[in-house]
Structure formats: C-alpha cells, structure tokens
Design a protein that fits this description.
7-stranded parallel β-sheet; Rossmann fold; 7 strands; single chain
Length: 251
C-alpha cells in the first residue's frame, strides 16, 4: 500500500515541487491550495495518484474538508507537509503595520498551519505504528524566522511562531511515533519573491548567499522528502536551513 501525503500550497512554488517529488518517490499525494479547481487548468495533468483539493487554510471548515478528502480516498495520512503561506499584501513599516494585515498573515501562516497539524496529528494517532512510526510532519518556515525585516514584521513573526510550533508538536508527538521537523528556506525563486527579484539579484551579487545563487523549489522539495521518507528516522524538532549558507555569520 502506498504511503499518503497531504501537501498544502501545492498549486505553485515549493508546494508544487514537493508534491511532484513525493509522487516520483512513490507516495500518493493530496494537494491543497486556495486556487479554485477550475483555475488550475492542466497544471497537474498526467500526475497519477494525485488529488487536488481547493481550500483556504485560514478556514477551519476547509481544513477539515481537506483532511476528510484524504481519509475518504486513502483511509490514512502518513505525511503532512505544511507549505502554504502568504506575505503581507502591502509591505509596511512595523510602526504602521495594520491589524488587518497581521490577522491575514497569521491566520494562514501560523493559525491555519497549527490547527491543520493538530487535525492531521490526531488522525495519525488513530493508526497503529509501523516499525515504530505513525507519521511525519514537515513545516516550511523561513530564514525570516530569525532575520529581521521591518517592512514585513507580520511575516517574520508568523515564521518565528512556526519554528516554536514545530518544536511543540515534535515534543508532544515523539513518544507517539510522529516525527515533526521544519525547513527554513532562504531566497527561493517562487511567486512570493518574484516581486522583489531585482532587490535579491543585487544582494546575491554582493555576497548575501555564500553559494552565490538563488535557491529553487526543488532544493526545498528534496530536503522535505528526506524528512518524510525515513532517511532521518532519529531526528525530530529539527530546523534545517535551505539557504545556500545565508544563515552563516561572516566577517
């Protein structure tokens, strides 16, 4: 029986690359994203063992519907990959950041991710462990969890919260055979960073990233796959930077 993964943010960027990687690795995958089904087009054409569910991660009803769709189709969830996230619609200095923007970003990046994880973890706990493992959960945080960006404070705070959420679930679920880890991407070429491409092109050229290049979604997907295929079976509560060395403090 194939193992089953639920991947949020699957319509693009890191989520899309992760869904594709897991499919190639032999998983059945259910992808969730806010993009309506009729707007997806042929993006997933030819993807066997893939099911797409449209839903808003900020909605409790949509989160429950996505999990129910997985259970109805496959009867199990072995892997949850929390990729879906948003940046503020408008970058504002933290001194004028609005509550509306804060609630929008937090509602998806932290609240939505937290309560989807809670829901899936409880489904995983209903199953008997196989070789001591009930499941794997991987969260996509960001270098912004530890890097100040005062024009998008709500995003930085949401990702710092994701890091603590990862540790909390890892602590609680380790005795139950569920491993919870996260990756912290650096400057990755996705729709989110496309709007500031010139800025990051300049910063990378000036030495921001020791590997001297943008990251791409596949860099993240490969790391995520290693965290949910048993390769790192004695690792939980860990944060792995996928940033070309950007986190290194240098003189």
């Amino acid at each position: 029986m194939k193992k089953v993964a639920l991947v949020t943010g699957a319509a693009g960027g890191i989520g899309y690359a992760t869904a594709e990687k897991l499919l190639k690795d032999g998983f059945a995958v259910v992808g969730m994203d806010i993009v309506p089904v009729d707007a997806v087009g042929d993006k997933f054409a030819g993807w066997d063992d893939f099911t797409y569910v449209s839903g808003n991660l900020a909605s409790g009803a949509d989160r429950e519907a996505a999990v129910n769709a997985v259970m109805e189709k496959h009867g199990r969830i072995d892997v949850l990959v929390n990729v879906a996230g948003v940046a503020p619609k408008v970058r504002n200095d933290i001194l004028v950041m609005t509550e509306e923007s804060y609630d929008f970003v937090m509602g998806i990046n932290l609240k939505g991710t937290t309560f989807l994880t809670q829901l899936v973890a409880n489904k995983m706990l209903e199953r008997e462990a196989e070789d001591g493992v009930r499941g794997y959960i991987v969260n996509v945080s960001s270098c912004s969890a530890y890097t100040s960006s005062t024009s998008r404070g709500e995003y930085c705070m949401s990702k710092a919260g994701t890091t603590m959420m990862t540790m909390l679930f890892a602590d609680r679920l380790a005795p139950e055979g569920i491993l919870v880890n996260e990756i912290c991407p650096g400057v990755i070429a996705t729709g989110m960073t496309e709007k500031v491409k010139e800025k990051y092109d300049k910063l990378i050229a000036e030495g921001l990233v020791p590997m001297n290049r943008w990251g791409n979604p596949d860099d993240c997907a490969k790391t995520i796959a290693a965290l949910c295929d048993g390769t790192l079976g004695y690792t939980t509560g860990q944060s792995i930077s996928v940033d070309g060395g950007m986190h290194i403090r240098r003189l």
